[in-house]
Automatic annotation (TrEMBL):
Residues 205-372 form the Helicase ATP-binding domain. PANTHER family: PRIMOSOMAL PROTEIN N. This is Replication restart protein PriA. It holds the Pfam family PriA_3primeBD. It is an enzyme of class 5 (isomerase). NCBIfam families: priA, PRK05580.1-4. Component of the replication restart primosome. Initiates the restart of stalled replication forks, which reloads the replicative helicase on sites other than the origin of replication. Recognizes and binds to abandoned replication forks and remodels them to uncover a helicase loading site. Promotes assembly of the primosome at these replication forks. Zn(2+) 2 binds at C440, C443, C458, C461. It comes from the Bacteria. The keyword Transcription does not apply. PROSITE patterns: HELICASE_ATP_BIND_1. Zn(2+) 1 binds at C431, C434, C471, C474.
Length: 725
């Protein structure tokens, strides 16, 4: 009796064997339903071993092997295998993440449920020529002709004004399935390329075939999207598939629309977690069967199986949402680069403000550099002005200068955005009189304020002490944590500018995609004068009437404990500043700060990302933070903090036995947001000089940790290349 080995979504790194009478080698990569404990589970067949790891007599038979869908190919199994290994996650959990739930449950998705190509049939042409009477189906045929390209995807025809008649036209024989099934990918409505765009496209297309990572560094508005579209066009023309990753679901509809318009005959699939289950399964199967031409989606679409894949495009590659922050903590950007290497393909990472990791790769010439230094349509980059708030009395955080600037925009009928930097940065103690900052005496990190037990802690090395009552440097008694609640700004703006329409744009105001789109429409239609927004506003939108961006709370990031905070601040300010003055009107960015001379703001004023990156990397090098070291974070949580900390201390002792030179295990630290959902959390940082050293250590350490007996109440996870430390 054949034995099959199955990856199941369970939180331990183990595979499970079953018997299956009719199993063949070709079933590897197929979904399967099996008995598990007292119930059933769905998983993936990863092998047909000759012998079971347990007593063969105890193996149970499978319930069902899903054979309607083609099996997932070897390169896909290698992809999930890599993610499981690199992020030290159970393979079954990676599979569960990567496969649409409907598919994994093996509840029947048809492989040929695709989006067929239709064209106007000879009978249809005849009717159009004769056209004595009018009908909806006839109107549809005319619209198809006007759309100019034939064949068209059924989904495209459906979207035409008379699209509802597609079934009718098909039944009458006026529309027919295209024979040959070779889509002609005419791109429509494309602009003339700028010289810079043409150059970078040539660079990618004329490079030697094979794996090649590229950084596409282009200022906001330089036309990176046009570059992606042209690269996609070249791939489609060569019969290849395109994978395009975007950071936010909220950004997909606009892009989806642009891509579908540009390539009317292409089968464009969008994949993200907000899709209905059936749609996600169908999209995945179309990718797998090679019917999808372009797959567009958020981080999980990096797991789309694409047999004809030609290129991977990662838009806004610096965006933190590419990193999954729960469960399997993978970085879709990094996995995309691995995927391109595996398949021997180019991968283009695009951004106006690349992550320092990627920028460093480009500087070291491990990645090719593609630059777009000018905006595509003639408009200048915004003017950046710092407002020194040290001696000012702020009104709910708003300086007189910012209020005046908003007033001017109101008079001219333009829009303003008040941008609040209120990420959950850990607050650091500072002295407004002398500029003293609570620094760790043992390492170069900043100490974090834990108000609950009134202590200052280092999240890097774990040392801690009491919160001082006065500034240790100048004796000033008025020392306070940076960063404060700024929810009242909206209310104050309404009082200050009663004639203005004030609109708040944050996660609370835009909980659903529909709400978000409605807000965007309101702004684009000019039906709001002052916007109050958080980081959601920083990304990829064009509002022609927006000419002023005021930034509040920037200093909190300047001195945050998280060493990535300045990088995020610079990225965010450059992105949000890029929102101002995209149209014909020039833009201005006003930054309120107590540190107007800080080099970060100086580089920003000159729009000089490279100068900022050089400075930030120099600082990281001195402190040996990534990318000059490699990190992993072990996190634990339990109803009582003591249990979480004790587990981490135990884990640390276990790890120290096998820690080689060049690898450092730090003390466990309670997290600042210690209590979350009635559980208390703590973390332990591991740092290594080399990636291989870290990986080798984690492999041994995880084995030891999985072998520990812990209380049922305690949970732990490992996070490789953590973003929040
Ligand atoms: P980025 O993604 O680099 O910020 P976009 O791709 O959004 O920039 O392009 C900015 C604007 O410039 C868009 O309105 C786009 O339609 C326009 N654009 C891009 N390339 C060209 C071009 N070659 N000719 C004319 N307009 C262009
Ligand atoms: Zn320290
Ligand atoms: Zn002081």
């Amino acid at each position: 009796m054949p034995i099959i080995r199955v990856a199941l979504p369970v939180p331990i790194p183990q595979l499970f064997d079953y018997t299956a009478e009719d199993a063949l080698e070709s079933d590897v990569g197929r979904c399967v339903r099996v008995p598990f404990g007292r119930g059933e589970k769905s998983g993936l067949i990863v092998g047909l071993p000759d012998a079971a790891e347990v007593d063969a007599a105890r193996l149970k038979p499978v319930l069902h092997i899903q054979r309607e869908v083609p099996p997932l190919p070897d390169d896909w199994l290698a992809l999930v295998g890599f993610v499981a290994r690199y992020y030290h996650a159970p393979l079954g959990e990676v599979v569960a993440l990567a496969l649409p739930p409907g598919l994994r449950r093996a509840d029947g998705v048809s492989a040929d449920d695709t989006d067929p190509l239709l064209e106007v049939a000879p009978a249809g042409r005849q009717v159009m020529a004769d056209a004595r009477r009018d009908s909806k189906a006839l109107a549809l045929l005319r619209e198809c002709e006007e759309a100019g390209v034939s064949p068209l995807r059924r989904s495209v025809i459906r979207a035409l004004p008379s699209g509802a008649a597609v079934g009718d036209a098909f039944r009458r024989g006026w529309l027919q399935l295209t024979v040959g099934n070779v889509p002609r990918h005419h791109a429509t409505g494309r602009p003339e390329l700028t010289d810079e765009q043409a150059t970078v496209i040539d660079q990618v297309l004329n490079a030697a075939p094979g794996f090649r990572p590229w950084l596409l560094q282009g200022v906001t508005g330089s036309g990176k999207t046009e570059v992606y579209l042209r690269l996609a066009e070249a791939m489609l023309a060569a019969g290849k598939q395109v994978l395009m990753l975007v950071p936010e679901i909220a950004l997909t509809p606009q892009l989806e629309h642009r891509v579908a318009q540009r390539f009317p005959a292409a089968n464009v699939i969008s994949l993200h977690s907000a899709l209905a289950e059936g749609a996600r399964s169908r999209g995945f199967v179309q990718a797998l069967s090679g019917h999808a031409d372009i797959v567009l989606g958020t981080r999980l679409s990096v797991f789309a199986p694409l047999p004809r894949l030609g290129i991977i495009l990662v838009d806004e590659e610096h965006d933190a949402s590419y990193k999954q922050q729960e469960g399997v903590r993978y970085s879709a950007r990094d996995v995309a680069v691995w995927r391109a290497r595996q398949r021997g393909l180019p991968v283009v990472l695009g951004s106006a403000t690349p992550s320092l990791e990627t920028w460093q790769h480009a500087r070291a010439e491990r990645y090719g550099l593609l630059s777009l230094s000018r905006r595509a349509v003639a408009s200048s980059l915004p003017k950046v002005r710092g407002v020194d708030t040290r001696r000012l009395k702020l009104d709910e955080g708003l300086s007189p200068a910012l209020q005046a600037a908003i007033g001017e925009r109101l008079e001219r009928g333009e829009q303003s955005l008040v941008f609040l930097n209120r990420r959950g940065y850990a607050p650091v103690l500072s002295c407004p009189a002398c500029g003293w900052i609570s620094r760790c005496p043992h390492c170069s990190a900043n100490l974090v304020v834990h108000l609950a037990d009134r202590r200052l802690r280092c999240h890097h090395c774990g040392c801690d002490g009491p919160i001082p009552h006065a500034c240790p440097s100048c004796g000033n008694q008025d020392i306070q944590p940076f960063g404060r609640g700024t929810q009242r700004i909206e209310a104050r703006l309404i009082e200050l500018f009663p004639q203005a329409r004030v609109l708040r744009v944050d996660r609370d105001a835009a909980r659903t995609r529909a709400q978000w789109e409605a807000l965007l429409d309101t702004i684009a239609a000019g039906e709001a004068d002052i916007l109050v927004g958080t980081q959601m506003m920083a990304k990829g939108h064009d509002f022609p009437k927006l000419t002023l961006v005021g930034v509040i709370g920037a200093d909190a990031s300047l001195h945050a404990a998280d060493f990535r905070a300045p990088e995020r601040l610079f990225q965010q300010l450059m992105q949000v500043g890029g929102r101002a003055g995209r149209g014909a009107l020039p833009g201005e960015v006003v930054i309120q700060t107590e540190y107007p001379g800080h080099p970060l703001f100086q580089h920003l004023a000159r729009h000089d990302f490279d100068a900022f990156a050089r400075m930030a990397l120099d600082e990281r090098k001195v402190a040996s933070f990534p990318p000059f070291s490699y990190q992993a974070m072990l996190r634990a949580d339990a109803p009582v903090l003591k249990d979480a900390v004790e587990f981490l201390q135990h884990a640390r002792r276990l790890g120290e036995a096998s820690a080689a030179a060049g690898l450092r295990l730090f003390d466990p630290v309670p997290m600042r947001l210690t209590r979350l959902a009635r559980r208390e959390r703590a973390q332990l940082l591991v740092e290594a000089d080399e990636r291989g050293l870290l990986q080798g250590f984690l492999l041994q350490w995880m084995k030891l940790l999985y072998a520990q007996r812990t209380s049922r109440e305690l949970r732990w996870q490992i996070d490789v290349d953590p973003l929040d430390v």
